[in-house]
Amino acid sequence: MDPASDVDRLSYEIFSILESKFLFGYDDPPKPKPLILSASAGTRPPPANGPFGRVRILSIDGVGLPADALLAAAALARLESSLRRRSGDPSARVADFFDVAAGSGAGGVLAAMLFTRGPDGRPLFAADEALRLVASWSGRSSTSRSFASQRRSAVGWLLRRRPGRLFRRVFGDATLRDTVKPVLIPCYDLATGAAFLFSRADAVEADGYDFRIREVCAATCADPAAAVEMKSADGRTHIAAVGGGVAMGNPTAAAITHVLNNKQEFPFATGVDDLMVLSLGNSDTSIESAKYRRKRQVPSASEIVRIAGEGAADMVDQAVAMAFGHNRTNNYVRIQANRFGSGNLIPKTSTVNELISSLEEKLSHKNVESMLFRGKKISEQTNSEKLEWVAGELIKEEERRKKSFIPIVVLKQVGASRSSSTLSSVVTATTASASTRTSTSPSL
């Protein structure tokens, strides 16, 4: 037998036990199932999940830069287009087909844009609208300055203002309770010296955990050198927030743990077999990183933070993939690209339209996957093919639920006394951002 195969199998069994006991909170993990190395997404039928279907989780990586969410935004725009075509509903949104959304850093801002409720009860933004906003925030549309200086100025403009004029115009006074589905967005709280997870479920349970969406976005994007001081909507909980990318650049494990341990909202989710996860990696847009790789220069402090965050995100990806075991090809999909923008893929003088076209072209490339202790490999499928497969599975899950009399998800509801103020805050949020959403290249 090939010694490398023995190492792979042993590593799989060890990590299966570790993730079951520590990652997802299981005390008595089941015996690991055999590892299938040759399987690829969509090549085998999904496992039997009973009459209830699977809980659908969307997770978006990010650090603190708007450009970190570019690939994720493009992927979600492509996914939403496919969902509309397959469902026959031209008004379908990403939020209609997921039960939980988790996002860190710029990924948290993107999740908030797609899952915050509008005055009509629908999400504030469609995925293509969110893509255009994120593309404009990346600071690439001006031809008068270099790419790097545009990014620094754009990021500084976003993060120097607390809670942030841009986020205020987009979200108004909407809070975590004003989301159409459960949302999870992390930051690091300097006051307690621990990671903090903003959660709709917690916000519904207690006023002290309900925060304004605009401040949540500022917190998860906060520069490590300049913490964002914030407090809950009722003023009782105070946080000194540092960006979510520092503490939890890849929130997939947190989202899975939330679902498996939240029996009130997800009563039938007992293991990873009952989940379907789409995890979107960041764009790896750092030109500075490429410079260090090419010239082997010593990275700056900020670049070391980014490297640490990307490494941690890869480790979470590997651990989650191992947790899904033989079902990972059907229940877990990761979209990740490397070296985007580090060569001549995107001109420094790109307009928003050119940038979006380049992102769409990037989705036609084959995905890059992490291998446990073995670096990375090129997958058998392109990002677009994976997204098409995911769209098909999401439609199947939706149809399965329509035939079931027992709901797989039972969301916590906001009290009647809260409803009127909730609607008022969301109307404010949407009115403030109306001009943004109707412009092809928003000027904020």
Mean pLDDT: 75
Ranges where pLDDT stays below 50 over 5 or more residues in a row are 28-50, 140-163, 285-289, 340-347, 416-444
Structural class: alpha/beta
Strand content: 5-15%
| Morphology call | globular
User: Using DSSP, what is the number of strands?
Assistant: 10
* Radius of gyration, CA atoms, in whole angstroms: 21 Å
Order of helices and strands: HEHEHHHHEEHHEEHHEHHHEHEEHH
Distance between the termini: 61 Å
Largest sheet: 8 strands, mixed
- How many helical elements? 16
- Percent in helix: 40-55%
What do these coordinates show?
This is Patatin. One of its GO terms (molecular function) is hydrolase activity. Keywords: Hydrolase, Lipid degradation, Lipid metabolism. With 444 residues, the chain is α/β, with parallel strands linked by helices. Helix content is 45%, strand content 12%. It is built from 16 helices and ten strands. It has helices at residues 3-23, 70-87, 106-115, 127-137, 147-160, 165-171, 200-205, 213-220, 244-248, 252-261, 287-295, 301-324, 328-331, 352-362, 383-402, 416-437, and strands spanning 55-60, 100-103, 183-189, 194-199, 228-231, 238-242, 275-280, 332-335, 366-370, 376-382. The strands form two sheets. Strands 1, 2, 3, 4, 5, 6, 7 and 8 form an eight-stranded mixed beta sheet that branches. A hairpin with a 5-residue loop joins strand 9 (366-370) and strand 10. Helix 2 crosses helix 15, helix 3 (106-115) packs antiparallel against helix 8 (213-220) and helix 4 (127-137) crosses helix 14 (352-362). The model is unreliable at 28-50, 140-163, 285-289, 340-347 and 416-444 (pLDDT under 50).
